[in-house]
Amino acid sequence: MYQVFVQPIPKQTPSKLRGFLRLSPKKIAIIALLLPGFVFQCLADEINKENSKENSKEIIQISAIDWCPQICLDKNRPGYVIELVKKIFEDTPYKLEIDIYPWSRAIKNVSLGKADALLSPAKSEAPNLLYPQLAVGYQQMCFFTLAESTWRYEGVSSLKGLQIGIATDTSIEELNSYVKSHLYQFQFQPYHERYLAQSFAKLEKKRMHSFLFTKNSTLFALHKQHKKNSIKVAGCVSKAPIYMAFTPINTKKDKIAEIMSVFDKKLTALKKTSYINKLMISYHLSTDS
């Protein structure tokens, strides 16, 4: 049983509210019972509208690799490249679907049109793909050795007689031609989630003198695997921009052209804000990393 206590209506009460307050106690009680259901239905309708809007978006299928801190498998910390790309396509007609593969397979997926985009190659790593004007970051390939090693990379002449580990289908920038003409010096291995752990082990077992990989990812893995005191950087090659690259398949050319246009426009706008700087700092990186 509801008890409703009605007090006199103050003269300054707005007219619409005065009208409501003149309702009988029984009607007010009925409204009080129905109101929560009405509010719940309104919220449900809004959620359905948002879901419908999201479902109507065109999907961008992305092939990527496990390459932390650029691209990570942690849902809460997915990597700065993933966070940046999601921000770029926020409030656009597109939604992203990202699948993780070994590097060579990821490149092949996009080259053949099985996926729309690749994260995140240097141009020399996948020269047949289409590239927007703006990059999503930079990579620098560095040599890593055991901490007690006195060797350091100081140009191609310093590579003589060494056995060096390298990931298949990666670009070594100014060393690309040297690698091609001195294949016997390089131990190629497909890049996948175990690449760095296997490279650390081969180095520690003295099966090679050094290995090459991206600086940020290797330092990240050394810290995570508690090896930062046993393996060190022994020189680097030049930096190269990395991109969200797109399939060249002709049947998708209109879709890809529109996506790249949106990408460059949104990233240009983001570069005028503090978003990218704050994002990089959150991963303990500089904006030119």
Report on the structure:
The structure is a single chain. The strands form two sheets. The chain has a five-stranded mixed beta sheet with strand order 6-5-7-4-8, covered by helices on one side. A four-stranded mixed beta sheet has the order 2-1-3-9. The protein has three domains: 15-54; 57-136 and 243-282, D-Maltodextrin-Binding Protein, domain 2 (3-Layer(aba) Sandwich), CATH 3.40.190.10; 139-240, Periplasmic binding protein-like II (D-Maltodextrin-Binding Protein, domain 2), CATH 3.40.190.10. Strand 1 (58-64), helix 3 and strand 2 form a beta-alpha-beta unit. It starts with 14 loop residues before the first helix and ends in a 7-residue tail after the last helix. With 289 residues, the protein is α/β, with parallel strands linked by helices. It has nine helices and nine strands. The protein is elongated and about 95 Å long.
Brief synopsis:
This protein has 289 residues and is of the alpha/beta class. It has 3 domains: 40 residues; 120 residues, Periplasmic binding protein-like II (D-Maltodextrin-Binding Protein, domain 2), CATH 3.40.190.10; 102 residues, Periplasmic binding protein-like II (D-Maltodextrin-Binding Protein, domain 2, 3-Layer(aba) Sandwich), CATH 3.40.190.10.
Main attributes of the structure:
alpha/beta; D-Maltodextrin-Binding Protein, domain 2; 5-stranded mixed β-sheet; 289 residues; elongated; 9 helices; 19% strand
